[in-house]
Amino acid sequence: MPQPFDSLQERLLRAGIAPRHVRRYCRELEDHFSDLIALQKERGYDEADATIRARALLGDDEELTDAMLATARFRSLTARAPWLVLGVLPPLVIVGGLIVLGIGMAVAAPQHGPHLPLPAWCAPLAATICSTANYAVGPLAILFVLATAWRQRLYGRWPVLGVLAAMLFGAITTLSVVIPEGSHKGEVSVGVGMGLPALLQSTRFVVIAVLAVASLLLWQRRSAR
After folding, report:
1. Spatial CB neighbours of 98, under 8 Å, sequence gap ≥ 6
2. Could you give the 3-state DSSP secondary structure of residue 224?
3. What's the pLDDT at 195?
4. What does pTM read for this prediction?
5. In this model, does residue 197 exceed pLDDT 60?
């Protein structure tokens, strides 16, 4: 069932107001609207007339939108700098996330003495974690871009560029952990690298590219509504 301020919420989001401010503003309006309806009913109006009169007293969507736009601090960072949030941030998150994961894996390696080898299960576990992370970071970054853009109702070129940047960095950024057979804790090697050689032959690139194209097609349909 449509709520009385659904259209206002859409207008505010598309105007660049941060979602948290939109939610709080609409809750306050709903409370005030209920009070006005109750007041009109006390004056003898029925439900329908009381609702119409209360809405008129509250103001139309344009007036209520202008009241929020008058304060610059209510605008979201996504609306003010979409190039930063949707274009620069996802690649940084990809690289930073892989670095943090790699460091965590190295630190979490079992503590053994200088002459005791690491358990045999460390190497396959590290390989599994690396493979999963390398496949997952690109799609997760794409999801982050589209979710952020949708929350702000931000359509146009920036979500598309953000998805493409996430796709590229997700495909060329690789986490690797090397644990030689019979190695000790100090011999574990962790690396995060970027490279373009044989990129088009990479299964990971194909997977991420297919997900990116599919998400953009769905996004285009959504934004056209």
Report:
1. 133, 134, 137, 173, 174, 175, 192
2. coil
3. 65
4. 0.73
5. no
